[in-house]
Fold these 3 entries.
Entry 1:
Amino acid sequence: VQLVESGGGLVQAGGSLRLDCAASGLTSSAYAMAWFRQAPGREREFVTKITRTSGSKYYADSVKGRFTISRDNAKNTVSLQMNSLKPEDTAVYYCAARDRDYGSTYDYWGQGTQVTVSS
């Protein structure tokens, strides 16, 4: 199983970025998929997830209304559209997957992609 993130980069505050997570070795539609992020000196934190059964979406309060998670079953990818970016969104963003909708852990992780938002 491999999850590969792409789309990170440097953007000015107020700008947008789209991150993609390409899955191989699993069918992403059969997995709950999530995005986490980790800023320097901070613990990794939950950003958003989409469930495998109903496709329900959940967001951290800090990104609600600005970020959108989506799934493309044909491409076996999960994406994160990030709008109205703030400097505090700067972090390494990770894609994660698990074969159940609820729980405290994820089974698979990508290597991460850097997002830097300048003020």
Note: The longest strand covers residues 17-24.
Entry 2:
Amino acid sequence: QVQLVESGGGLVQAGGSLRLSCAASGSIFSINAMGWYRQAPGKQRELVAAITSGGSTNYADSVKGRFTISRDNAKNTVYLQMNSLKPEDTAVYYCNAPTVVAGTGGYLEVWGQGTLVTVSS
């Protein structure tokens, strides 16, 4: 089993900052690209940012220049630093980690439980 535990969400005023963390644990052999997704009420889940094990990053156009994704491979942890937050960033943020399971070599698409980010105007 592999689990993702997210933290760092909350309520912030527009223009403020938050830092999300997501730690993976369990029977992990390797994790490929880790990513943050978000889902606002009434909308589909969308990719916010992703980072490979080598450090290559990809961002949604709506967050470029404001959000920064980073990763600590030794800790199997991914972070999302969110600056200059806007009300339209309000959503539940989910961590994603495609994982190769230790021992079996099986592949799991693992998701966190989600953390709510609310940006007030």
Note: The chain has a mean pLDDT of 95.
Entry 3:
Amino acid sequence: VHVLESGAGLVSAGESLRLSCVVSGDFFRISGIGWRRQAPGKQREDVAFISDGGLRDYADAVKGRFTISYGDNDRHAAFLQMDGLKPEDTAVYYCFATLDPGRKQEAWGQGTQVTVSS
């Protein structure tokens, strides 16, 4: 299973970025796609998740600013629209796909850097 992120960038506070994630390879099904992030010196934290049924979940820190969605007619691709970016959003963003109904089996991407300057 391959998970590939794209959309890295350096932006100023208040601007927007859109991250993309594509999942490919040999798997039965995807039960959801999500994003986590890790800032320097901090633990990795959840950002957003979308289930195969389209239910979305967001971390409190990004609610109202970030939106996760699937590609048009493509549940193997997901996007994270990030608006109103803040310096504290600076981190490496990792896309992951859950591959079983219990969401215990995960496949991860290599991460993509998002830097927000003040």
Note: The mean pLDDT is 95.
